[in-house]
Amino acid sequence: MPDCRYTPSLNRNTSCWQPGHERAAEMNSGPENQQAIRKMLKQASLKRPTPSLPPQKMETSSVKWAPREYSLKEFVRKFETSFPAIIKITEGYLGKQEVDSISSSTVLRVHSLYYQKRAIATSSTGKVFSLPIKLRTLQFFVGNSILPSERYTKAARYLEELLSNNNLPLTIVSSTALSFKEKTSSGANQHPLNVLTVSETYEEHFLLGHPVEKGNIQIETPIVIPMYMKDIKLVMAEGYLNENSEKWTHICKHFDRKVQAEGLLEHFMVEEIFLLDRNDVSRKENTYDEIDRIYIDIHSIEFQKQIAPPKAAPEPVEEYTTTINTTAEYTTPINTTAEYTTPINTSNFPEDLHNLDMQEVCDCLQLLNMGQYTAAFQKEQIDGQLLFELKEEIMESCLGMNKLHIVKLLKFRDGWRPNTSNRTCND
User: Which CATH code for domain 305-427?
Assistant: First the structure.
């Protein structure tokens, strides 16, 4: 069966006309014969036929496809060492996202079975991620927190180096504050991507190749077919229907040379971080490379400091022992005028709170007239990223916040800002 595995032949047809023959003939003859030789060579060159170049496009409508249909796993198992090969998808795959689909009748030149080592990491909110171990777009610190000043003084490391020097499980935090959202999901919310715990590593397999469209191989758009696309069915090309093996061999060699010269597949790397469905992960029959991935966009959180300087800490107030104070939640007397003599400047509030450091979170509490909680927030080292992990019960039981202030902080965290004016409550 003809295929695309060809090695350029080292043999040369010595009868073919080769550059340099003219000069060699002159050097090997006496001066009296050189003029006659030049005349003879000139006449021969005029009679030399111009070779017709075979077409550079694959006539996919004339390709003879094998009758046997394979699943993706069957195809890999049988032909793992027989690539490259030309295949056609007979049953496509529709993933959870549009970017994760391949349609039937797609023709591909499969280059190889690609292997990549990846790591499984879980966030503090329980989301499961798959990261390439050779990831070069991000660096990490070991530990579950990093002070803003340490982002510039401590040396961050690539994931590969951290995994080679530490045992699993390993808790890491990105050197850059990150958030993520699902791709192609309209209205998807941004989620913080902060502390990750790497629990294990695995090897992912997928087919690597290029699509063939309108007879041309699309070098600029390499395509991968992961093993979780288990519904895919495909057939292999056997040549052309008219049994023109020479023409088939030529086009396959042409594709081989083009991939070798322009494909740069030896440097190919999938650097994307994927989100995995926890329900799929919990099913023991699935290996990690057979779990559908959820594609995500990751963004670096930039924060321009717009927070006003912190107010001076209030003087300590002695507890009231009279019976006028009827509730424990108001152990500090309420000043009915001082809090409203100057309106709150909402421009002092940042739009995105994820990248606040601990002091900046406390500054926000001061601007919200909730400065009584700054000591508790500082003690628990609550920065902007941890702020988004707080639940109502934690705020009440661990930070001593009353229910009104919990509602206020949750609304503030979700984007609410006080609607202030130049009027005071006494106007």
Answer: 1.10.150.50
